[in-house]
């Protein structure tokens, strides 16, 4: 536990990306919140996503959007050339860069 707290303390103030993985119920969400609270973006919005609920072949388009031609079987309006992620995710992506 002490080693995990040290790793969070070292990583949180950086601008790096973190992959938190583990089995269900191991506290991944608590670690994510701890990183956020110690980060330089602690005053920004924290966005939670259940990536397990998103099909593997759609995860990229859900996180980063997609172009109209990416899914030919899906009908989009002519006006929407590019499907943008949700406003909360856009805010997170903007602050992450």
What brief labels describe this structure?
single chain; mainly alpha; 97 residues; globular; 4 helices; 4% strand; two-stranded antiparallel sheet; 2 strands
Could you explain how this protein is built, in words?
The protein is mostly helical and 97 residues long. The protein contains four helices and two strands; from the N terminus they run αααββα. Strands 1-2 form a two-stranded antiparallel ribbon. The longest helix has 11 residues, at 28-38. The radius of gyration is 17 Å and the shape is globular. The two termini are 30 Å apart. 1% of the residues are buried. The model is unreliable at 78-94 (pLDDT under 50).
Unreliable spans: 78-94
Number of strands: 2
How many helix segments? 4
Globally, the shape reads globular
Mean of residue pLDDT values: 76
Helix content: 25-40%
Structural class, by secondary structure, is mainly alpha
Q: Strand percentage, roughly? A: under 5%
Give me the Rg, rounded.
17 Å
Largest sheet features: 2 strands, antiparallel
How far apart are the termini? 30 Å
Strand line-up of the largest beta sheet:
1-2
Order of helices and strands: HHHEEH
Write the layout of secondary structure elements.
Blueprint: H1 2-11, H2 28-38, H3 59-64, E1 66-67, E2 82-83, H4 87-96
Antiparallel strand pairs: 1-2
